[in-house]
Structure to design on (588 residues):
């Protein structure tokens, strides 16, 4: 072709690839710090780090699922101050 | 709301009268910028020279730079000695605080623009004409500038790196003002004011939009900063 | 927008994997069709192949900012306020900034051989460049420390402030240009009346593929944000949660915020049906 086309594809898709890999790596690192299994799995895997501490994992999940600010009076409405 | 705005504006202007930071530092900085452009694009002046042709744009870039400093100063005053907490607890209407701070900065900037315009006219050798158009664009553009600036000023007040954050937020946002005001000035100085008459309306729309956002959003932002 | 995972964390992951796989296959197919199968264009020659990439990236950029804006609004609206929306806004803008950068770069690479310049002050280009810095600023605002809800509200307002600017910027640049000379650059998509057959299909595929890629990136970025929030709240909350679990009670669930499915996916623990000991008792 002519160099420009190749450059465009390499830069475009390469950047997206690097970004995707960096997201996965950051996610993995965050999971490790939180003591979750490094890869979220579809099934319970008893041999995984996360499964060894199920209570904590479940709590974290429940907490994440129940997380909302709407119910808290001090966090209501941006106009409330006025 | 307006009474509160009056109080806050009076307070900020009194601080300026006593501390003379805008007079002693912001205004000289703007003149330095004008001189630097002269060094970079000079030394030719007068009809047909780069400096003369670029005078409207250079004037407005200098105003933009000065606006950032003025806004930073306006919030540095609040950052010291927990003054922001006092402002939050004062019971003043946050919309009034927004309008007051914006009015104080706008007042300082308008005076600065007056002198800056004279300086640009003198050192770039560009005769000022169509003064009504120039003044109208100054007022409208300045309202938009300070509304956006004060809004982002309070956003970045909580940041540790606010000196670097504010310019990054502010300059892209006010790019339309730079375009519009420069165009208006260019046309006015070229002796054909009003050729692209949509610009003043654009500046006005910007000013109205950001004043409205500021009036509504300043409260929650101030609460958190 | 986001993968339609159920409340089970596990299913979210499975859906996400399929999504990622589909996106990858789509991109590979686009590259194959775009670089090898489709013929060179009559006027543009091989350069037309860049058009299987650039418009789709720009399209994703618009979607990303649109979603970021909508979720910011949903956060500000008291009835729908939930941190999930803030995370979605942050995730979508970050992905959007990446795609904006790529729009500029791939556009520039296309522009150099086509127009002979790397850059032209075309309204669309200028607006895109300003959009890039505007949203970089927004991402910087998100980094300002503070209480979690305070940060979310500040970010939502900043997103609003930035978004309102976009049409003003676009029209001002349009006028600015048109006063000098008519824009010389036609929109690459609308300017193409000669697209047909395999070229049209490839173009369509590229839009679908990159949208899938966007959805995958968004979901993963969202998870990362959810994990970061968990991490931030670790200390005290974790201790309380563990004490509660020791007492044997499963804590009552709060109202599920919209998008809680993704939050569930974020923690990624075993499926509720098959979870380990210590829960469900």
């Amino acid at each position: 072709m002519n160099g420009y086309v190749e450059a465009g594809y390499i830069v475009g898709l390469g950047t997206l690839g690097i970004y995707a890999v960096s997201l996965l790596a950051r996610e993995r690192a965050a999971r490790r710090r939180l003591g979750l299994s490094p890869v979220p799995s579809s099934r319970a895997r008893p041999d995984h780090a996360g499964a060894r501490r199920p209570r904590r994992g479940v709590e974290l999940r429940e907490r994440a699922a129940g997380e909302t600010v709407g119910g808290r009076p001090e966090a209501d409405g941006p106009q409330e101050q006025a | 709301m307006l009474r509160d705005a009056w109080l806050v504006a009076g307070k900020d202007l009194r601080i300026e009268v006593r501390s003379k930071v805008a007079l002693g530092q912001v205004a000289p900085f703007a003149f330095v910028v004008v001189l630097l452009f002269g060094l970079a694009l000079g030394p030719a002046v007068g009809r047909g020279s780069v400096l003369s042709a670029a005078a409207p744009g250079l004037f407005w870039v200098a105003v933009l730079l000065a606006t950032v400093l003025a806004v930073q100063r306006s919030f540095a005053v609040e950052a010291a000695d927990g003054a922001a907490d006092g402002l939050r607890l004062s019971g003043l209407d946050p919309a009034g605080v927004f309008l007051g701070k914006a009015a104080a900065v706008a007042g300082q900037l308008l005076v600065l623009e007056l002198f800056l315009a004279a300086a640009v006219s003198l050192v770039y050798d560009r005769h000022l004409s169509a003064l009504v158009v120039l003044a109208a664009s100054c007022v409208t553009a300045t309202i938009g500038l300070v509304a956006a600036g004060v809004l982002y000023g309070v956003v970045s007040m909580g940041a540790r790196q606010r000196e670097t954050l504010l310019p990054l937020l502010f300059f892209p946002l006010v790019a339309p003002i730079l375009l519009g005001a420069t165009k208006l000035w260019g046309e006015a100085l070229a002796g054909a004011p009003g050729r692209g008459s949509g610009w003043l309306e654009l500046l006005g729309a910007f000013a109205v939009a950001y004043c409205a956002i500021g009036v509504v959003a300043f409260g929650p932002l101030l609460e958190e900063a | 927008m986001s993968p339609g995972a159920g409340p089970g964390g596990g299913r979210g992951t499975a859906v996400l994997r399929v999504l990622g796989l589909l996106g990858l296959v789509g991109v590979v197919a686009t590259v194959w069709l775009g670089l090898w199968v489709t013929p060179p264009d009559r006027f543009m020659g091989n350069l037309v192949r860049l058009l299987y990439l650039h418009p789709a990236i720009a399209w994703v950029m618009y979607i990303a900012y649109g979603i970021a804006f909508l979720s910011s609004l949903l956060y500000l609206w008291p009835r729908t306020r939930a941190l999930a929306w803030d995370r979605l806004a942050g995730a979508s803008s970050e992905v959007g900034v990446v795609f904006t950068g790529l729009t500029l770069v791939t556009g520039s690479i296309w522009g150099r051989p086509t127009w002979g310049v790397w850059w032209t002050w075309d309204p669309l280009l200028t607006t895109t460049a300003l959009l890039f810095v505007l949203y970089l600023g927004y991402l910087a605002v998100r980094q300002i420390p503070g209480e979690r809800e305070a940060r979310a509200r500040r970010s939502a307002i900043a997103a609003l402030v930035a978004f309102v600017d976009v049409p003003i910027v676009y029209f001002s640049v349009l006028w600015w240009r048109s006063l000098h000379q008519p824009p010389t650059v036609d929109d690459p998509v609308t300017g193409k009346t000669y697209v047909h057959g395999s070229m049209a299909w490839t173009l369509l595929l590229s839009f679908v593929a990159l949208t899938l890629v966007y959805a995958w990136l968004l979901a993963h970025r969202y998870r990362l944000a959810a994990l970061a929030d968990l991490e931030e709240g670790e200390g005290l909350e974790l201790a309380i949660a563990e004490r509660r679990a020791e007492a044997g009670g499963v804590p009552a669930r709060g109202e599920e915020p919209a998008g809680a499915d993704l939050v569930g996916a974020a923690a990624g623990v075993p499926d509720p049906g098959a979870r380990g000991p210590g829960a469900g008792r």
Chain A touches chain B through five residues (CB under 8 Å).
